[in-house]
Design brief:
alpha/beta, N-utilizing Substance Protein B Homolog, Chain A, Alpha-Beta Plaits, Rossmann fold, 3 domains, 17 helices
Length: 427
């Protein structure tokens, strides 16, 4: 267990120094090729868990320390162990003993006594420590204060539910490839394999107990893809039909691109600024036996598009804070800064202005984010319409059962992540 604790502490330390969790885990898997699947799963569970509950862990640890810990690795080892003691079924004495041993493995043998004392003190005082930690919003909800304050201001009735939704494990949600079979047929196939699941949205399936995709019947053959129920709305809201010329302007990793092609026979261009991420689009389309023209291009810069011609539909799934998907990416809570919002909204506005010039008259552009912050969503659209007299916002249709939206905003809940959609028509 101490090896797992060490790797989790090291990964959390890298994230808190400014590195993305997905990238750090990818490096870890390459460097630690001897890890068993069970060990990899344990490391991932611990890193995700610590980052989801870091506010609480910090609040507890602050009460237990007589003076600040200057070494990040020891501090994050304590975060990992306290998370295990409060959220896992492992025996308490084993967690403590392994954490003490892990100090030497991490190169801090002199910290063993401190780690042992702090963890045993946590076990003795847990009820009181929890009460004090829960008395502050940061300790109770595990988000930075600026994030909590922003949500409370923008969603006075829902901010607590939004915060809590971001701290739970996300469901494994699939999108059935309706070119190959119906959703009911796939649910029946899952039942044949003793995999319990339920329907969500128009083509979605939520698997009751998440499992590796390799265990899902038909995944390798392109019968289904992994995609959140909220994200599945994008292709449906764009209102495509056979024969249309469509641009997916920020396409990677390709889930929405593939969904569009599953819905209709399209002349589809899938673009992304990152060549490596564009390869993921190609891989996803290949698994699903779908075709699109892939283009490496910057959606902000018109010179990339001078010879592209006009499109009848454009999907602008723009870069954003990703504040609506923190349960899948808990590092976002600690990597984002308040100033990031202004930089991102500026980029979003430039992308919108560029893509609008590529949309033919009578065409439709769907603006999409995985954010819940107003600046990136309704306010962005209000400002865009004020700049473009030929833009008209279309009402969104009623959504599928189990998915609720208010003026284009989907708030995260048990069924889906947080997204925003606005459908714009060029008149």
């Amino acid at each position: 267990m101490e090896r797992v604790q060490c790797l989790a502490a090291e990964t959390v330390s890298q994230v808190l120094s400014g590195h993305g969790l997905d990238a750090e885990l990818a490096v870890l898997w390459r460097n630690e090729a001897t890890l068993t699947p069970q060990q990899r799963g344990a490391v991932q569970d611990l890193t995700y868990g610590v980052l989801r509950h870091l506010g609480y862990l910090d609040a507890v640890l602050g009460q237990l320390l007589q003076r600040p810990l200057t070494d990040a690795l020891v501090r994050n080892l304590l975060h990992v162990a306290i998370f295990q003691l409060s959220h896992s079924k492992a025996r308490s004495y084993a967690i403590v003993d392994h954490a003490v041993t892990a100090c030497a493995r991490l190169g801090f043998p002199r910290a063993q006594g401190l780690v042992n004392a702090i963890l045993r003190n946590f076990l003795r005082r847990r009820a009181d420590l929890d009460a004090v930690a829960g008395a502050t919003d940061q300790g109770k909800y595990s988000y930075p204060k600026w994030w909590i304050d922003k949500l409370e201001s923008q969603f006075p009735d829902d901010w607590r539910a939004i915060l809590l939704a971001g701290n739970v494990r996300p469901p494994l949600t699939l999108r059935v490839n309706r070119r190959r079979l119906s959703r009911d047929a796939y649910l029946a196939l899952l039942a044949q394999h003793a995999i319990a699941a339920r329907a969500v949205g128009h083509a979605g399936v939520i698997v009751d107990k998440p499992c590796p995709v390799a265990q899902l019947p038909g995944f390798a053959d392109g019968l289904v893809s992994v995609q959140d129920a909220g994200a599945q709305l994008a292709a449906e809201l764009l209102d495509v039909c056979d024969g249309l010329r469509v641009l997916d302007a920020c396409a990677a990793p390709g889930g929405k691109t593939a969904h569009l092609l599953e819905l209709a026979d399209l002349e589809l261009v899938a673009a992304d600024i990152d060549a490596t991420r564009l390869q993921r689009v190609a891989d996803n389309l290949s698994r699903l036996s779908l075709r699109a023209r892939l283009v490496q291009a910057d959606a902000e810069r018109l010179e990339f598009w001078r010879d592209a011609g006009f499109f009848q539909r454009i999907l602008a799934d723009v870069p954003c804070t990703a504040s609506g998907v923190v349960r899948r990416h808990p590092d976002i809570k600690w990597l984002r800064r308040p100033g990031d919002i202004a930089a991102l909204t500026g980029r979003q506005a430039r992308i919108l202005d560029t893509l609008w010039q590529l949309l033919g008259r009578g065409g439709k552009l769907l603006y999409a984010t995985c954010s819940v912050f107003h600046e990136e969503n309704n306010r962005q659209i209000e400002q865009f319409i004020a700049r473009h007299a030929d833009a008209r916002q279309q009402p969104l249709p009623l959504l599928a059962d189990g998915i609720k939206q208010v003026q284009g905003q989907l708030l995260p809940d048990a069924a889906h992540d947080g997204f925003f959609y606005a459908l714009l028509e060029k008149i």
